[in-house]
């Protein structure tokens, strides 16, 4: 049994326009021919591909998984054909620049399209994500020769890309990386073992381009001694044709909780003397080059949290509308007999729906600011937008993925006992989502990044600007003519006050008691996400009320926008006060025990 | 790789004495020979069996799972031998009455022992739980002849028991049950299909005694037309020897997210004309008979939430103390390099530890009240204790199992990428825990029971008495000489005020707007659990401070008790205010959408 997926086009269009700032993004478009009337057809086409080609492979791919034999990995049935079609139709290279063979689509629009791939088939979608991340790192940091030799095939999807960072002793702590690179003429000999390499080996493409963090012989210790190398699985001749196999091999793949259809490889470099690699970027600056990939990947992983939650919501909604199991309390004899009539089932569905929309709001808002940071004609606007993107990146990554844990679990819960049976498909979404709070930097790493590099480093300036915007809008709503919007505005004001207090607390105390402020970093990040998600839902509700008043648009849909924001304001924003208290008063007790007392 | 488990004997003894009221339970002991100085040896012996026999089979059992072939089920390697040893050593029958061949242990003490089985091997432990539940139903409701024929072998574990309730169309809604029973002489012919039958078929014992809900020909519709029948897998001769196979078969077993080592069977009754069954209890009163099993099972499933959380905590703690991965911020060059030095890792471990202890407090407190309800010499005390147990049963069941979702997920998170790899074992605890919020009545069912039957029905009298006790103790702590206890008392007073307000709201509004109050039932149950868990931790902290002041006991352990309660007060109790707001103000928006707007 494979559960269907339908791209939520109406929701996406609304979020693109009202929260992502699509019109402004299209208006600043720099010579690319994308006109506004192409947006809907692109989304519809992508939705069709996601529903018809990728989604049906999701459950079978989970069941079959990848299989390793003698260094080769066989992907589940149907994946190779789907991948070939994905590349042929141009979806693979779509987000990449036009000069590289892509379609130069704004990040905002490609974010909506990527959401679809991730909802339809998370495991499949990771291959494109990794490849385009590698494309970005090569485009920015590699020599023109390397770019010319590798990028066209990678953008087209004929060759895929990977990030080789983690080693058995070096996970979150990259300073412990031991892989070595020794110069030999124009290239290097790479040796070492890398683990957790997503799509590190497979049968979808004829070559795999590994980007590998390793140390040169004269490298200083720590993260400042890491350099980045390009190591193809198959060496590439000067004319672009494929040559001999490189000295690297997939030693095994992991048996994982989820994303079974993508290989998570242990890669052994240089067992025959050294894999041939080329330096990308300057020596000892590998970490900065890698972060080019990483920051983009972090936003995309946040998007996975949204996408898996959306898929879980669709499945739970379909089950609740179909499953007959007693009439809900307080419904008359003619009331529906499906479980959506039960107040607690509605509670679960509303919790899923309103959080999904809040996540989509935050992800698309951030994507829209990325376009502004790249393409706005005014430099000051670009800089301000970039600061905002930097601030929001860890929040989108960690908040959306943590939300996804609870939402996909609710998806199982709505199914009752059937949710625990693997054939139902609900459990897969929860298993697949489990990795998203871990890879590309755990939730704890994101929270440290938010606190240390994004909040404290600029003295709270960027967060303060954003918070004032939230508070101004909340005050406006609190005085609105619509009673529901007033209730939303009041709730948002209270939640924003908690964020303001927690922020002030951390800024004052961080220097003196850094261990305490880091102990409160994750609750602080969750507080930021909770408030910002509520703000964007409130913004959407106000737009919906305006459209309702003007008599335009789909009345049911717009009224639901208002109700959903109201739900979030009354059922999610109340968590903000508690989170604020935890940040301000909870940390000392977190650190109260000795190691031996645990 | 199989992860070790060590029974937390010091924690258990503390909770038994200070929160479960062990001394009072032993003092009221009615003729059974259990003396206080046997308690520790029993716990130690049980702990050894759990660690040495059951825990090592947990991960291999998960990997191998149960296998079905031609109606028979083969359990994983080692399970049959462990089960035989479990029965021979008397652990199987230990909680049962002495006159049945058990050891008549107080529920409080057997609760601690059952916690160990569940921590060590959740799947294995379910077999004993189901069997003893069936024993209880037969002992209370079946004829003396049936009791004599079945109980001795069941208490000894030579035969196991099951509950056959669910059918494909009848999950939470038992009124939809269709299985039929037709009288034939002194027995009945049973036909129908039952699903989700835990340990419904296996190779551990020579017979399986199924208790089956079915309808007599003259049964009224709905739940008042259900009768309970005893249907053995193998018919039992008058002399107690085994006869022919009954007309019932395991048609298949489910492929589940977790508890792979126990079979979850589809049972087909009467495919050859009708399984032979005997009526248990009066006709049409099967539901009441079944609830005898169910209420006990609900407390035991709550205990599973605690037990799996404890196991996950032990594993995460061991990893955090062992894994070297960068030195924690603010630690000097001589500080530990293991990840427990990182504030965020400590945050996760403290969140696990303090919630585990709160859950243990609530579970043991309830178990102690069960003993009082059964054995207190004063009838009024017995009645009051029983009312408390009835109130607390859905809270223990649903709150502990919902807590377990987050705690076992944190267990994975502490492991970083390794947590997602199945060999690590952390993911199994999360997968196994996933069923606990579903079976024996979902969280939503428990919340409805709490609201409707336990709160509203007595006008809030029982909850009110308990809440006043909480508030009195909190006020006492708020004026204590110990500053940490004062902080705990203040936090508990605030949280209790939220519970008081939410309770008043529901009592006032339930009759007029039942759909709204049911929409707030789960948040209300979580609020109850949060406050009561904090209360019992606070009570433990006060006892620890008293012992510290007297100079008795283990200083480090007692100081940790205070710190852990403080952590909960500062990091978990702040959630209460938000939950209270959601109960009082959130429900209308939960119900705001039409079905079509989802």
Describe it:
Two copies of one chain form a homodimer. The model of chain A has no long low-confidence stretch (mean pLDDT 96). Among the domains of chain A are: 9-140, Butyryl-Coa Dehydrogenase, subunit A, domain 1, CATH 1.10.540; 144-287, Butyryl-CoA Dehydrogenase, subunit A, domain 2, CATH 2.40.110; 454-592, no CATH class. Chain A is globular and about 75 Å long. Helix content of chain A is 57%, strand content 11%. With 598 residues, chain A is α+β, with helices and mostly antiparallel strands. The first copy, chain A, is built from 19 helices and twelve strands. In chain A, strands 3, 4, 5, 6, 7, 10, 11 and 12 form an eight-stranded mixed sheet that branches. The first copy, chain A, has a two-stranded antiparallel ribbon with strand order 1-2. A two-stranded antiparallel sheet of chain A has the order 8-9. Chains A and B meet through helix 9, helix 10, helix 11, helix 12 and helix 13 of A and helix 9, helix 10, helix 11, helix 12 and helix 13 of B.
Outline the fold blueprint.
The structure is a homodimer of 598-residue chains.
Chain A: H1 9-19, H2 22-27, H3 36-54, H4 58-64, E1 67-69, E2 72-74, H5 79-88, H6 107-120, H7 122-141, H8 144-156, E3 159-164, E4 180-184, E5 187-198, E6 207-214, E7 227-232, E8 234-236, E9 242-245, E10 248-253, E11 264-269, E12 275-280, H9 286-322, H10 343-375, H11 379-414, H12 426-433, H13 443-456, H14 461-478, H15 483-509, H16 514-519, H17 521-550, H18 555-571, H19 575-590
Parallel strand pairs in A: 3-6
Antiparallel strand pairs in A: 1-2, 4-5, 5-11, 5-12, 6-7, 7-12, 8-9, 10-11
Helix pairs in contact in A: 1-10, 1-17, 3-6, 6-7, 6-9, 6-10, 7-8, 7-9, 9-10, 9-11, 9-12, 10-11, 10-17, 10-18, 11-12, 11-13, 11-17, 13-17, 14-15, 14-17, 15-17, 15-18, 15-19, 17-18, 17-19
